[in-house]
Design a protein that fits this description.
The protein is 26% helix and 32% strand. The chain is built from six helices and 14 strands. Helix 1 runs parallel beside helix 6. Bound molecules: guanosine-5'-monophosphate (5GP).
Length: 263
Amino acid sequence: MNKGNKLYEGKAKIIYETKDKNLVIQHFKDDATAFNNLKKAKIEGKGVLNNRISEYILNNLSQSGIKTHLIKRLNMREQLIKKAEIFPIEFIVRNIATGSLTKRLGIPDGTNLEKPLLEYCYKNDELKDPLISKEHILSFGWATENELRYIDRSTLRINDILTGMFRAIGIKLVDFKIEYGKAWNEESGKKEIVLADEISPDTCRLWDAKTEKKLDKDRFRKDLGNIIQAYQEVARRLGIMPEETNISEVNFGKTIPIKFKKK
Ligand code: 5GP
């Protein structure tokens, strides 16, 4: 699939046109940003790892009946995806209180939540992605009641599937952010809601089940170091990277590519 013009460049990804008006290419960059772009860095190898981890997770969700935008991974940094009209909403699920929830409400960090907490944020960098209620979404027409009902149910199901997937590899899924869009479905001949964007250590908080070591983007946000090593650890535990691959083999230069297991 040939890459056409750049349609959109975000903080961590670029979207390119293809010859098919319903399909686009999603390119994973090495750029990392936090605190609404105040903190920026290039983390070599991050895009490659997120591409693989997100492919693995979305394929697993797809096998469990979740509709996603992913068609297939094309190469180390790119995926062919359905072009989707993205809802301007970040759907956040929390299983353990941390991050902005603890700051906002003074809930002690690490508190286990009795049931998953679903939050909505308005996707708007200038406004710093503010927390919104369901009423805001309906009031401003960002999604309809039916769409929201479908998305809420799908989001909680995704949380169940991912919690189990990570628990099996000794990782606690603390919280995560997902996005949805409306994309053309060839078979039904109409648009349908699909899970979009990515699910990776950039968009989830993942703690080692025993030590609570952070294996996610908080290592960047909080200057904890060893970011790539943490992302690699997640990939290794998911079974995407062979056991023997070590950190020095990450593609810092041009010589040694990251080795991934063949499908
Ligand atoms: P918090 O609201 O505590 O900062 O984030 C909650 C969860 O959503 C975390 O897993 C965090 O990584 C994810 N999240 C929230 N907003 C964003 C965002 O704008 N970009 C990314 N990559 N993740 C986000």
